[in-house]
Amino acid sequence: MPDFVSALAAATLQPGKGESVLLNGRRIAVFNVGGEFFALDDDCPHRGGPLGPGWLDAEQCKVACPLHGWEFDLRTGACLTVPARPVRSHPVRVADGWVEVAI
Question: Which pLDDT tens digit goes with each residue over 38-48?
Fold first, then answer.
């Protein structure tokens, strides 16, 4: 069973937004899509850009890196721009008002 780590209070991440957090020494991007939360490694494989502050397309459940626009599926981490370069996705749950990420 994965270890879940508290990332942030669920109420602080508004729907349609993402945020970068540091969990156990790792940068993780957490996203709120209509009240459903997703987490990806926060480093774009192209040039290491942060995905947390990227351009979120909630309708298509994807984020684009703010540096060069590479797009990633929030559900799987699949890279929609260069399929051979995915990022890792992480299980997420909400417990006692906190978004928790398995890392």
Answer: 999 999 999 88
Residues of the chain with pLDDT under 50: none
Q: For residues 53 and 17, what is the distance between their CA atoms, to the nearest angstrom?
A: 8
Q: Is the dihedral of CA 7, 20, 33, 12 positive or negative?
A: positive
DSSP 43: B
Q: Could you name the CATH architecture of 4-102?
A: 3-layer Sandwich (2.102)
Tokens for 49, please give them: 């850009």
Give the helix/strand (H/E) hosting 56: strand 55-57
Residue by residue, DSSP assigns 3-27 as PEEEEEEGGGS-TTEEEEEEETTEE
CA distance 32 to 46: 24
For the entire predicted model, the pTM comes to 0.95
Beta bridge partners of 53: none
